[in-house]
Amino acid sequence: MQLQIMSIIILQLLLLYSIFGHVETTPIPPKVLLSMENTSSETNVLKPKLDLRKCFKDSDCEQHSWCNKAYECECEKGWITWHNSRHCSYKQSSKILAFILSFVMGFIGADWFILSRKDSLYILCGILKILLSAGCCIWNPLAARSKSRTATTAASCLSVTLTLISFVWWFVDWIRILLNSFPDGNGAPLI
């Protein structure tokens, strides 16, 4: 009984972490520097010119980036510029952590919850994985209570089918993580 309560608490914590655990970055427009350019029709017209993140020292770069030898801001390991967010403001999920979670608790969808980044489809897949795993265990005790041989056989077949589907899904998730084809909920690659 205590094991069931603990597993329910762990599942609830994973679900809460997948929903509220990651802070999304706010998209901001890129830095714009104004430069003076002369045109043939008018003189001293200001035209916007995009900053290519040039730097001379690390403090010229934004948080989680540093100035490399080419005088450009480069993101630290594990941080990327994702879509229209600030430079180096998106923390990538760990591939090793995702694999370990998938290996140890993948049958209950822990890997999907951790990688969700608030994406409802990932959370839904995690819940479906929990239901599949629960279905593997529930049908045999229910069939044992039934006195009908047909019900027992049907429940056993259903249990074996759900177990097989759950195991294949679990194995496919491992392969996807190892081959870097399992992005997080926002589509960013794992590191």
Calculate the mean pLDDT score and round it.
Answer: 78
Order of helices and strands: HEEEEEEHHHH
Helix content: 40-55%
Uncertain runs with pLDDT below 50, 5 residues or more?
22-40, 43-51
| Largest sheet report | 2 strands, antiparallel
What number of structural domains do the residues give?
Answer: 2
Summed up, the helix count is 5
Beta content: 5-15%
The structure class reads mainly alpha
Strands ordered across the widest β-sheet:
1-2
**End-to-end gap:** 38 Å
Q: What is the number of E strands?
A: 6
Write down the overall geometry. elongated
Q: Which radius of gyration do the C-alpha atoms yield?
A: 25 Å
Keywords for this structure?
mainly alpha, 48% helix, elongated, transmembrane helix, membrane, transmembrane
Structure description:
Keywords: Membrane, Signal, Transmembrane, Transmembrane helix. The chain crosses the membrane at residues 96-115, 121-142, 154-172. Residues 1-25 form the signal peptide. By secondary structure, the chain is mainly alpha-helical. It folds into 2 domains: 7-25 and 93-178, no CATH class; 32-38 and 45-88, no CATH class. Helix content is 48%, strand content 12%. The chain contains 5 helices and 6 strands, in the order αββββββαααα. The chain has a two-stranded antiparallel ribbon. The protein has a two-stranded antiparallel sheet with strand order 3-4. The protein has a two-stranded antiparallel ribbon with strand order 5-6. The model is unreliable at 22-40 and 43-51 (pLDDT under 50).
